[in-house]
Amino acid sequence: MIKTMLIAPYSGMAESVKQLKLPEDFQVDIEIANLEDAIQLAKSVEDQGYDLIISRGGTAAMIQEKVSIPVIHIDISGYDMLRVFTLIQDTHHRVALVGFENISRGAKTLSSILEYEIEMFTISHRDQVRSQLEELKRLGYTIVIGDVVTVEEAQKLGIRGILITSGKEAILDAFDEGRRQYQLLKRAHARVSRYHQILQSIPSNIILVNKELKIEFSNLSSEYDELVNEIIESKEINQLVVKVFKEKRSYWKTIETKKFNIDMQIFLIKQDNSLIGIYIQALNKLEDISSIKMTSKVVHVPIIGDSPYAETLRETVHQFAQANENILITGEQSTGKMTIAKAIHFATFGQDAPMLVVDCSSIKEGIQNLVEKIQKIQHGTIVFKEIDRLSIKEQELLVNLVQNTPSSFQIISLSEQDLDSMLEAELFNSDLYHLISALSFYTKPLRERKEDIAAFISYFLSEFHTHSGNETLGIRKSSIDMLKEFEWHGNLGELQRRVKELSIKATGYYINEDHIIELLERKDKQKKNDLMDRDNYISIEGTLEEIEQAIIHKVYEDENRNQTKTAKRLGINRTTLWRKLNNT
Predict the structure, then answer these.
(1) Rounded CA gap, 522 and 509, in Å?
(2) Which among 1, 82, 252, 581 is placed 20 to 30 Å from 318, CA to CA?
(3) Which residues are CB-contacts of 342 (< 8 A; sequence separation ≥ 6)?
(4) Partners of 415 in the β-ladder
(5) pLDDT band per the 50, 70, 90 thresholds, residue 31
(6) Are 495 and 488 in contact (CB under 8 A)?
């Protein structure tokens, strides 16, 4: 048996390999890693006695320089090019392909034959990717096709990146080549020397690791041995350590272990560029701050759509990012409020500052923890998610926090409820309202922007193709027209779930009308079952107040969370409904 490690630079490749019937003379393990991460993995693979490694593109090339066992390259075939061109054939945006000559040469020929309007830009080294993308952004390109590095850099610059994935044909060809090289090449082993000393004086609560992620030193007490191992084994920390070595700059990160939520700073030891320090800034019990999440590097997520509303939304993000004012975003569940918040953060800070997301529905006693985090990170974005779920007491506490937050922070509040109505019903603190709503924006539900459905479907399909190896490449126009007839009460979340379901069940490369009809039939059946369940059953267990609450919430959900209709159906005014929904 040929013991083989396939290192997939993206998740979709791993899924594609799992679906293949591989040659019986191969024992194959699969891991997902790209570039520097893959190098670290490849070194451990060599030590474990693997016979060869299979990977793709720049990842394979970098691995080959670091190990002595054969590294087989998965080539990008004409079939792969055709798939990605099909994914973007109906776009109205300027599209460019950025890649090495082995990619751009064949892509240019195929594009000419098929008469696709795709500009080709050839690079000779990966360090050229960012400068090339910056120039393309200046020229107005909004979609870029390329390999993993190109797509990741595009996201950092706010450009939509579409990955050229490798199909089954290219993967199977790589196994054939691997068999041939296995017969010709010998295994070799290169070990990295360890350091003979570490720094004599270090601050408390610090872990020092080398490039192999081996612990050189830790001054945490023995009771934290298990915690130290969890930190080192964390995939997120592994990735950040690699970035620190490469970029020679520090990063903030918050991770959750089994018992703790940990804020840490990861930095390069200046006296020795082959050592990384992990400085534990805060070590808190998980239950104390589970409502606060910190993201060190926010990834760009595009504002999807070609409608006037989508254009307005993109312009609003740009304007809000320059205004340096507190922002309130309201709208129904799953209408893109968090995406807009991330876009504003990205436009304001790029990836140079962290974003704190505070879940107001479960903040409890976490406000003091938030104060401590703000003092430590000094600048960034604070997002108050579901701020309408705060109790009056919690709102009062938040007033003081917002008033004392430095101007170096951007505060964005998200609400599903109309805060003006809550203010009139005396369910929201007026001081807090005026503090958080210097600028405001209402996100339209999907049923009011159906002209963007086609763009969202295209985006979702390309994401499924990249991350799960899904073979569905498009949807028929007639099928899109049928989907526009849906009301989409679940908004973008429901659309994404339905598109994923349709793409999985599609037997060819396109979703057609038969799949939509089947979906409609299931929705009608489910709706009837739900109505029967609601009509035939309601629990009468608990106190009178609890039964009343159950009835109110059931009617509220039945009326699609519309307070006016719910109050009218229950025969009470909206103020009373607000109080009962919030149990105040």
Answers:
(1) 22
(2) 252
(3) 298, 299, 300, 301, 355
(4) 330
(5) very high
(6) yes
Dihedral class, residue 353 (left if φ above 0, else alpha if ψ from -120 to 50, else beta): beta
Query: Alpha helix locations (H) across 115-270?
Result: 128-138, 148-157, 168-184, 225-233, 235-247
Report d(CA 77, CA 259) in Å as an integer: 47
Instruction: Give per-residue pLDDT as tens, 398-441.
Output: 999 999 999 999 999 999 999 999 999 889 999 999 999 999 99
Residue 300: what residue type?
H
d(CA 287, CA 363): 10
Give the integer Cα–Cα distance in Å for 461 and 463: 5
Q: In degrees rounded to 5, what are phi and psi of residue 439?
A: -125, 145
Helix (H) or strand (E) holding 59: helix 57-64
Residue 66, classified by CB atoms within 10 Å of its CB into exposed (0-12), middle (13-18) or buried (19+), is: middle
Cβ-contact 302, 320 below 8 angstroms: no
Q: Do 341 and 347 contact (CB within 8 A), yes or no?
A: no
Tokens representing 59 are 């990842």
Q: How far apart are CA 337 and CA 492, in angstroms?
A: 11
Model confidence pLDDT, tens digit, residues 498-538: 998 888 888 788 898 888 888 777 766 666 555 555 555 56
The pTM is what?
0.65
- Distance CA(454)–CA(461), nearest Å, equals 11
Q: How does the average pLDDT of the chain come out, rounded?
A: 84
Give the DSSP per-residue string, 399-434. HHHHHTS-TTEEEEEEESS-HHHHHHTT-S-HHHHH
- Cβ neighbors of 386 (< 8 A, separation 6 or more) are 359, 360, 361, 414, 415, 416
Residue owning tokens 């609560």? 205
* DSSP string computed for 85-139: HHHTTT--S-EEEEE-HHHHHHHHHHHHHHT--EEEEE-SSTTHHHHHHHHHHHT
Helix (H) or strand (E) holding 581: helix 574-581
Q: In the 8-state DSSP scheme, what is residue 289?
A: S
pLDDT at residue 273, rounded to an integer:
73
446 neighbors 495 (Cβ within 8 angstroms): yes
Contact between residue 162 and residue 80 where contact means Cβ atoms under 8 Å apart: no
12-26: string of b/e by CB count within 10 Å (b at 16+)?
bbbbbbeeeeeeeeb
**Residues 509, 471 contacting (CB under 8 angstroms):** yes
Backbone angles phi, psi at 221, to 5 degrees: -65, 165
Instruction: Tell me: pLDDT of 193 over 60.
Output: no
Q: How far apart are CA 131 and CA 125, in angstroms?
A: 11
Residue labelled with tokens 């993993």: 148
Give φ, ψ of 145 to 5 degrees.
-100, 140
